[in-house]
Amino acid sequence: MPRIVPPDDRPPEFPPEFVWGVSTAAYQIEGAATSDGRGPSIWDTFSHTPGRVANGDTGDVACDHYHRWVDDLDLIQALGVGAYRFSVSWSRWLPDGRGRVNRAGASFYDRLVDGLLERGVEPWLCLYHWDLPQALQDEGGWAERDVVDWFGDYAASVMGALGDRVAHVAMLNEPNVVGLMGHLLGIHAPGQTDLAAYAAATHHLNLATGSALSRLRSERSDWRLGTILNLQPVVAEGDGEDDAAASDLLDAAWNGNHLEPLVAGRYPAVMEALIGTAVRDGDMERIRQPLDWFGLNLYSQLRVAADPASLIGLRLVDPPDEAETTAMGWEVAPEALSRQLIDAKARLGDVPIVVTENGAAYRDRPGPDLEVDDLRRTRYLERHVREVEAARAAGVDVRGYFVWSLLDNFEWHEGYAKRFGLVFVDYATQRRVPKRSYRWYQRLVRDGVVPSSADVA
């Protein structure tokens, strides 16, 4: 695909109604793992299992956002963004995954929503960001079909309490990551490496999305309902047929397995035989639901080669030696964002798109003056925001952009070594220090024009 640039190479400009925001997730920032009646989640179990998470890190304390949320909302307000995307901890809301609502946990989110509105920030609520209650995992988790109804009941409970003040709601965050990394590769909770569990979980994640969309839409017509996928362009390592087939398979498993059922009511042809084992009559109609908006998360692109010896016949390939990479080892490929936005439009049609996560991890440390000069992250964000404008210039209806993440936080199996935040967190003291990237984003939000990363110190 040829390179896309904004018209006349003018500096990108965004309309006043464009939504600028930041994103977080409950398990990654809240801490307070056993406070006020919260039940354990699969990530509590996974992170406390030796060898699962780097350095033996857990989310027990994380950023202690549960106790420091007022200060964190003040940081959001000072940033100037119009929206904050957060997730609700299912096991804080329903310690057993179903049944009794934990009033103390629900009150936390009640205060959080009110605090955002008092500061002029719109709450964007994500119902599920990977932290399934352990009680439900003990009954089969996402591989058990009953989870579809469990999730629907939980979604209705949350929105019944918060839906008078929250309009924008995402069903699931990145079910493709949940399926692949949690149930096939085993590097995320619940740590399974089971092809049958992967197939069942993939389908039930889709079925839960569609069923919850339908259920919530039947309860109120003014909620703006969407869901979020991590979509990344897939690049074949070589020119041969085997690598091309591997690229098609990974594109189907990563990008197509959750998008095509939602918008077209079918699985990619190459995945039908596997996922079809979990499909029952009427399921695809339940999954295919209209969206008020679609959330797209993107960090990089995927390189792949055929590998007959692997579980699924392919392997991911490291970026070339000359490529710029982040601390995660991910290739910095800003043009992947405009390419993926254009591809998403082709698949979604006229559904408005919001970039719900984009950001980069680097090894940030405060200097002697306590400033965090994260120029590489600032450059990363500048280049990617310009790609959003390029996609908009090409006709993609992109309505918003959310940086991942507001705070440095628990980065899943990578623990605390990888920092994505606009705000540095000293985990020993819980001190927050806004970084250079925070100030850059603050200026972008204020002016609606992308500033040069070099101009913001």
**SS element count, helices:** 15
- Counted up, domains total 1
Helix/strand-derived class? Answer: alpha/beta
Q: Under CATH, the topology is which?
A: TIM Barrel
Strand content: 5-15%
Q: C-alpha Rg, in Å?
A: 21 Å
Q: What is the strand arrangement across the widest sheet? A: 1-2-3-4-5-7-10-11
Low-confidence parts: none
Assign the CATH class.
Alpha Beta
Per CATH, the superfamily is Glycosidases
Let me know the largest β-sheet: 8 strands, parallel, barrel
Distance between the termini: 35 Å
Query: How would you sum up the global shape?
Result: globular
> What is the β-strand count?
13
Give the overall average pLDDT.
95
Helical content band: 25-40%
Short descriptors:
457 residues; TIM Barrel; 15 helices
Describe it for me?
The protein is of the alpha/beta class. It has one domain (7-447): TIM Barrel, CATH 3.20.20. It has helices at 26-29, 42-47, 65-79, 90-93, 103-118, 134-137, 147-162, 175-184, 195-219, 241-264, 272-275, 283-287, 335-348, 375-393, 436-447; strands spanning 19-23, 83-87, 122-128, 168-173, 224-230, 234-236, 293-297, 302-306, 314-316, 353-357, 398-404, 423-426, 431-434. The chain has an 8-stranded parallel beta barrel with strand order 1-2-3-4-5-7-10-11, surrounded by 7 helices. Strands 6-8-9 form a 3-stranded mixed beta sheet, with helices on one face. Helix 14 links the parallel strand 10 and strand 11. The longest helix is centred in the middle third of the chain and has 25 residues, at 195-219. The radius of gyration is 21 Å and the shape is globular. It starts with 18 loop residues before the first strand and ends in a 10-residue tail after the last helix.
